[in-house]
Amino acid sequence: MLGGVFIILLLQLVGEAVQKYFDLTIPGPVIGLLLLLGLLLILRRLPRRPRALDAMRDDVIATSGHLLNHLSLLFVPIGVGVILHLPLLEDQLLAVFAVIILGTIATLVVTGVIFARLISRRDLNGGADD
Amino acid sequence: MTDAARLYEVWVYLQAEPLFWLTLTLGCYLLADGLYRAARLFPLLNPVAVTILLVSAVLVGFGIDYERYFNGAKFIHFLLGPATVALAVPIYTHWSTVRAARWPIMVAVLAGSFFAIAITWGLAVALGLEASTIKSLLPRSVTAPIAMGIADMIGGVPSLTAIITIATGITGAALGRFVLDMASIRSTAARGFALGLASHGIGTARAMAKDPKAGVFAAVAMGLSGVVTAMIISLIFHLLTVMI
What are the C-alpha distances in Å from B185 to residues B94, B108, B169, B179, B190? Predict the structure, then answer.
């Protein structure tokens, strides 16, 4: 558990440092995600690796499971701030909410349909167009 | 009377401490989660939305300002960063599926992100919103830290963008199942993908709670659309300033 927490925090730290240094628009934690994914994939390719590395990997996987089980909870603090700051929108409130609700519904449908079509076409081709 | 006075003293002491707000947040979440399960996952009882409303009601009822609440809740908020890093694990465990779908993923991320920006712009203009509000709305479908960065870059109001982004996430998470059913999109991968692209982390959390495979596609769509949206919007604004 502790080793897993350490690795995850370390990669986020590296991600934040890279983001600040290169002044990137991608947030630090997303860079940390890419680093962790890269490390896990490299580790899988190593033919002979010390057992300690495998143990570390299993630890990271278990810790991630705990973190992701209640991912929704983590949005509560910022969400409460949203409710309390709604007056910021004043008389534009209704129109903004109309844009959010209609826009989100339309985006869900369009994206879902495009992706579903693309993957079903691949399935028909036997996925051989790589 | 002295008992009441002592109780009041205890309350004054506790509400200044992080412990109380941390406990309240967890308690409300457990309550909302139980309610959601009892109502057989009824979409409008989305646990994040219900928890936020419960906590807000307590704060407004007792006249507590947000800064005091956040002083306790920041310990939960902090975990968002590590949790984002941890999203690498489900992507890793489903890596062969993601790899096999890499072209559909790229095409759908580009098309979906572009559509999200275009429909937002179209609706906002049609409803006659102010220019600075429109700029704050444009990046609304991507994760809050990226969206706020984009808003800042193009002259929107980042705090307004934070509100709009979270509201977008909750809308997607709450209405997603219903909307995707209506559009008869049945593929687990496509449902997760649409949720992650249209409503970032909150949609991804919803997809992840439903099915790990949906969660993986949601996480991939969320991560890539964040980067792609930043590029599309900065490109459009760059072209506009060059032309004008």
Answer: 21, 15, 20, 9, 7
Among the residues of B94-211, which ranges form H helices? Answer: 95-100, 102-126, 131-137, 144-154, 158-182, 188-210
Is B218 an 8 Å CB contact of chain A?
Answer: no
Mutate to test the interface with B, among A115, A118, A121, A129 (most CBs of B within 10 A): A115
For chain A, what are the domain ranges? 1-69, 79-130
Option in B92, B194, B227 nearest A112 (CB):
B194
Nearest CB neighbour to B187, from listed A9, A68, A116:
A116
| Residue reference for tokens 């409710």 | A83
CA nearest to A99 within chain B = B123
CA distance B2 to chain A (A): 35
Predicted confidence (pLDDT) per residue in A9-66, tens digit: 999 999 999 988 998 767 788 889 889 999 999 999 988 888 889 999 999 999 998 9
Residue-wise pLDDT for A59-86, tens only, equals: 999 999 898 888 888 888 888 887 887 7
- State the complex-level ipTM: 0.86
| Letter string b/e over residues B154-180, b meaning 16 or more CB atoms within 10 A of that residue's CB | bebbbebbbbbbbbbbbbbbbbbbebb
DSSP B211: -
Element at B142 (helix H, strand E): none
CA angle B92, A38, B98 (to 5 degrees): 40
Alpha carbon distance A32, B148 (integer Å): 19
Look at B185 and A109 and tell me if their CB atoms are within 8 Å.
yes
Contacts of A4 (CB under 8 A, 6+ apart): A56, A59, A60, A61, A62, A63, A64
Taking the C-alpha atoms of residue B42 and residue B37, their distance in angstroms, rounded to an integer, is: 8
Give the percent of chain B with pLDDT over 70: 99
The two most distant CA atoms of chain A are separated, in Å, by: 64
Assign A85 to helix, strand or coil: coil
Put simply, the answer to whether A102 touches B191 (Cβ < 8 Å) is no
Structure tokens at B83: 């949790």
